[in-house]
Amino acid sequence: MESGLGIRNSKLREETIINPETGEKSVKMGGLTFPPRRVWMKTYGCQMNYHDSLRLLAHLKNLNFTKTEEIEEADMVLFNTCAIRDLANQKFYSHLGEMKHLKKKKGEKLVIGAGGCIAQTEGKHLVAKYRHLDFAFGTDVIDQINDMVFRTYSGDDRFAVNTWDRSSNFSIETKINHGTPQAFVNIIKGCDKYCTYCVVPYTRGRERSRKLVEVVEDVKKLVKYQDVQEVTLLGQNVNSYGKENGENLAQLLYELEKVEGLKLIRYTTSHPYDITDELIEAHGNLKKLSNHLHLPVQSGSASVLKRMNREYTPEHFLERLAKFREVNPNIVISTDIIAGFCNETQEEHQATLDLLTNAQFDFIYSYVYSERKNTRASGMDDFLTDDIRGERLREIQKHQLDLQLHIRKQMEGRTYRVLVEKEKTFKGETKWLGRTNCNRIIHFKGQPETNYKWHWVDLKVLDATALSCQGVLMKDLGTLV
Ligand code: 5AD
Ligand code: SF4
Predict the structure, then answer these.
(1) Which ligand is nearest to the CA of 272?
(2) Which of 47, 84, 295 most suits a substitution to test ligand 1, by most atoms within 8 Å of the C-beta?
(3) Which atom of ligand 1 is nearest to the CA of 197?
(4) Ligand 1 centroid to 371 CA: how many Å?
(5) What is the 3-class SS of the chain, one letter each residue?
(6) Which of 336, 352, 361 most suits a substitution to test ligand 1, by most atoms within 8 Å of the C-beta?
(7) Binning pLDDT at 50, 70 and 90, where does residue 177 land?
């Protein structure tokens, strides 16, 4: 496999030239020649951002950039930023600040760019404030990265691009993880939900879906030409998929089920309001659909959900969960929780603890509420202190870990089929790590000389705690089942 760009991208503007004497590759774009260069990249935030980073790297490969993990040897440093909570913001700002020293050391040779959610809304400000930043770019111009890099190497003044793609349909080529059987496929971008705490509708824009036929075609090609076996359909709110085209997620899943050679389908992230009966039924009918569902609830209190503009009640959420479990008793469900939303009372907080007990989540991501500029919640009364928020978060996490231990213990003695992703050394011991269909990670040792990467294996779970799971190899099925 070459760059990881979708195979539709056959007519490249970038022309490759190989020096017949040295064998060195250079790339010509317009009047500029690009020698082999290194790019170092830091990604913050969600899967969408990680996916965008892969797209950036795939494009940059066509301009003769390869990825480096060593920032000191980089010719270009790129940040892909996240604006969802203040912590991610602060990390990026301090990292960007530090880059001043590297730029001083390496001089004008080092190019620094910042993209993603912070750059979408703050790009101009970033370029004005940080003199060592060469360019900033928003979330909707990822695929124009080579034009921006070209501008920079052409000697253009420092600039920011944060335009929205106004074309009526969302149509993109799929970029995949280099050489892995797992691929992310973007199906919808943006979000129209406007949860009062959330900055995403402002950093990612309005919802727009790809056409169903295009997505299916893409997946077929990934399976046929790139040996992909597992796809994760991506979007800020995948349950809104297809609305503007008279299509929906359930229809897409039924079509993808038919793709020969595809083994596993995941999708993320969901919004409980848009979960239809048809989609739930698909979880009972479709063999390739993952047994894991991430369904962010945010709070267990009806009044908090109302202040968050989440459009559902805890009862509705629990009813949807019960339906999922009815059609597929093996489904495992995870969620997101925000602790200490504006003016949350002790009773409202208790309602979240109660919901955790009732819902029996497999795991949760939990955060303290973080005020984001220009969101509706930023204008709400909020007398809660950071201490109370922190305390509530710890209480939520502790409660969940107790529940989780009980849930995970039930895995002991059972055998799971997993796709092995990598080897990891922990406390001096090296083990392989694989992911079950239901998205749980199991560690195992295997035979000393065998490379299990991307093998499907059957593992029997010997020991499970709330946070980790140890198994023993029962059967190695190789790279393709
Ligand atoms: N403060 C805290 N958490 C937030 N999230 C989104 N916005 C905020 C915020 N302002 C959380 C939600 C969402 C996840 C991706 O991030 O739980 O589901
Ligand atoms: Fe943000 Fe709500 Fe949209 Fe999720 S659904 S991205 S929390 S606005």
Answers:
(1) 2
(2) 84
(3) 10
(4) 10
(5) CCCCCCCCCCCCCCEEEECCCCCCEEEEECCEEECCEEEEEEECCCHHHHHHHHHHHHHHHCCCEEECCCHHHCCEEEEEECCCCHHHHHHHHHHHHHHHHHHHHHHHHCEEEEEEHHHHHHHHHHHHHCCCCCEEECCCCHHHHHHHHHHHHCCCCCEEECCCCCCCCCCCCCCCCCCCCEEEEECEECCCCCCCCCCHHHHHCCCEECCHHHHHHHHHHHHHHHCCCEEEEECCCHHHCCHHHCCCHHHHHHHHHCCCCCCEEEEECCCHHHCCHHHHHHHHHCCCECCEEECCCECCCHHHHHHCCCCCCHHHHHHHHHHHHHHCCCCEEEEEEEECCCCCCHHHHHHHHHHHHHHCCCCEEEEECCCCCCCHHHHCCCCCCHHHHHHHHHHHHHHHHHHHHHHHHCCCCCEEEEEEEEEEEECCEEEEEEEECCCCEEEECCCCCCCCCCCEEEEEEEEECCCCEEEEEEEECCCCC
(6) 336
(7) low
Nearest ligand by distance to the CA of 45: 1
- Which ligand neighbours the alpha carbon of 296 most closely? 1
Domains of the chain: 15-161 (3.40.50.12160), 182-408 (3.80.30.20), 415-476 (2.40.50.140)
113-127 pLDDT, tens digit per residue, is: 999 999 999 999 999
pLDDT of 178 reads 62
| Cα(10) to centroid(ligand 1), Å | 39
Nearest residue (by CA) to ligand 1, atom 17, is 336
- Please check the confidence at residue 349 and state whether its pLDDT lies above 70: yes
pTM of the model: 0.91
Ligand 2: list residues with CB < 6 Å: 191, 193-195, 198, 200-201, 236-237, 271
**307 token code pair:** 């202040």
Pocket of ligand 1 (CB under 6 A): 84-85, 197-198, 296, 298, 336, 338, 367, 369-370, 372
- Kindly report, residue by residue over 385-443, the tens digit of the pLDDT: 999 999 999 999 999 999 999 999 999 999 999 999 999 998 888 999 999 999 999 99
Q: Hey, whose CA ends up nearest to atom 5 of ligand 2? A: 193
Q: What value does the mean pLDDT take over residues 210-227?
A: 94
